[in-house]
Specification:
6-stranded mixed sheet, Protein-Tyrosine Phosphatase, Chain A, 15 helices, about 25% strand, Udp-n-acetylmuramoylalanyl-d-glutamate--2,6- Diaminopimelate Ligase, Chain: A, domain 1, about 500 residues, about 30% helix, 3 domains, UDP-N-acetylmuramoyl-L-alanine:D-glutamate ligase
């Protein structure tokens, strides 16, 4: 595609372009990493929190880029305009999203999204599962990567970078997947990674303290998430909002059309919920009908996630009868209240991704009815992240567990012993500290009896542990499975 045509299709014809005659040449790809640039590429040098990507414009030109896109006031090397076309934009992140979506075509025609501190992955995956059971080819994007697997490679980030995202969506569309359900993180929304997508429906699950290492305060965090509804929801799109959270009235006031879900909702109301040996039973009133669901999902909070998924699909015209049939086939999401299955296991173990105080409290409250004996929790806090939540996580674990074991999560560049002490500051004197995560899991299982329930929180589906600059292979599920097998022997 010629650069001039690409700019026009993306609706960016007002951009300032200077330099060589590259606008008349064919662009072969778009990159935001200069190391990935190949001859003919458009390099987008985006401003970052630590480094401005425009610093790598010269390297991109030397690698064969035909053009570079930078912010309006970016300082570039003298004479660069003799080598490449230079595009300046007042909103380079948004421009990059629009260019990537226009270049990597086709894209799915139905776009759904979910934001919130907790529940995004489950809502996205449940929605994809239900669409698939109804015969729609749907993909989900988020911390589990691109699902179903095999269509394209995506990094396991809540919201991937804009170029990787649109490359993956093109691959999915070419494979006849016409519906997308995506997790919209506050980072991704703030950094305009989703700005080329228009959503027919978008859900808000909840909000609690997280990512205050990035956002200035909770208001900034909330407004970043609210962009999904104020800026990216289609003109006739529907917001699917949790009526049980304090932010519901404010969110409702931001949109023209909405559906409410939850125990206090008018539209999708949870009437009945109780735990069963296999999971839970729900009764939901909507559109003058009563939906009865028996779900193999452990954790009362999963009902909220299911309701959000039902709301997203009802918003795009799927009937209550179809929704009841589709929801009855739901399966749990990896690393979300996931049972570690070992034949004749000496105790019961759940793995969950909960890595905030609110999520940890929610998970432990949900796990309690399934523990005939003690509830034993293993958890930690990640390094290079919001330090303020560490003692709060300690408080939650100590308050809702019979035995709380503090261990390492992903310490990254920080001293893990210091992180553990900051977590322990929120706990009582009888909290247990076992730094090595594998040893902590083995210790907990050794302590547990047949009626006890062990919850391993923080990493969920992750397959690695980040220590320093290295990602070492580590799976909570596999380590727990091995520990159960060893204990059984």
């Amino acid at each position: 595609m010629q650069l001039s045509d690409l700019i026009s299709i993306a609706g960016l014809s007002n951009l300032e372009t200077q330099g060589t005659d590259a606008p008349g040449h064919d662009i072969t790809g778009i990159e935001i990493d200069s190391r990935a640039v190949k001859p003919g590429a458009l390099f987008c040098g985006l401003p970052g929190s630590q480094v401005d990507g425009s610093r790598f414009a010269q390297a991109a030109a030397e690698a064969g880029a035909l053009a570079v896109l930078v912010s309006q006031g970016a300082s570039l090397p003298a004479g660069l305009e003799q080598q490449v076309a230079i595009i300046r934009s007042p909103e380079p992140r948004r421009a990059t999203a629009q260019l990537a979506a226009s270049f990597y075509r086709p894209q799915p025609s139905v776009n759904l999204a979910v934001t919130g501190t907790n529940g995004k992955t489950s809502v996205a995956d449940f929605t994809r599962q239900m669409l698939s059971s109804l015969g729609r080819n749907a993909v989900s994007v988020g911390t589990l990567g691109l699902q179903p697997e095999g269509l394209a490679s995506l990094p396991p980030l809540t919201t991937p970078d804009v170029v990787s995202l649109h490359k993956a969506l093109q691959a999915a569309s070419l494979a006849d997947y016409d519906a997308l359900v995506i997790e919209a993180s506050s980072h991704g929304l703030d950094q305009r990674r989703l700005d080329a997508l228009s959503f027919q429906a978008a859900a808000f699950t909840n909000i609690s303290r997280d990512h205050l290492d990035y956002h200035a305060d909770m208001e900034d965090y909330f407004l970043a998430k609210a962009r999904l509804f104020t800026d990216l929801l289609a003109g006739d799109g529907i917001a699917v909002l949790n009526a049980d959270i304090p932010e519901f009235p404010r969110l409702k006031g931001m949109v023209d059309r909405h559906l409410s879900f939850g125990s206090k909702a008018q539209d999708i109301k949870l009437f009945e919920q109780h735990a069963t040996p296999q999971g839970q039973h729900l009764e939901i009133a909507m559109a003058g009908q009563l939906l009865k669901l028996d779900l193999p999902l452990i954790g009362a909070f999963q009902a909220t996630n299911v309701l959000a998924s039902i709301g997203l699909l009802y918003a795009i015209g799927i009937s209550p009868d179809e929704l009841q049939a589709a929801a009855s086939d739901l399966k749990g999401v990896p690393g979300r209240m996931e049972t570690v299955v070992v034949e004749d296991a000496p105790t019961n173990v759940l793995v969950d991704y909960a890595h905030t105080a609110d999520a940890l409290e929610t998970v432990l409250k949900a796990a309690r009815p399934h523990a005939k004996g003690r509830l034993i929790t293993i958890f930690g806090a990640g390094g290079d992240r919001d330090k303020g939540k560490r003692p709060l996580m300690g408080q939650a674990a100590f308050a809702y567990s019979d035995l709380a074991i503090v261990t390492d999560d992903n310490p990254r560049s920080e001293d893990p012993a210091i992180i553990r002490q900051e977590v322990l500051a929120g706990m009582g004197e009888n909290a247990v500290e076992v730094g090595d995560r594998a040893e902590a899991i083995a210790f907990a299982i050794q302590q547990a009896g047949p009626d006890d329930l062990v919850v391993i929180a923080g990493k969920g589906h992750e397959q690695g542990q980040t220590i320093g600059s290295e990602i070492l292979p580590f799976s909570d599920t596999e380590v727990a499975r091995q520990a159960l097998e060893n204990s059984r022997k």
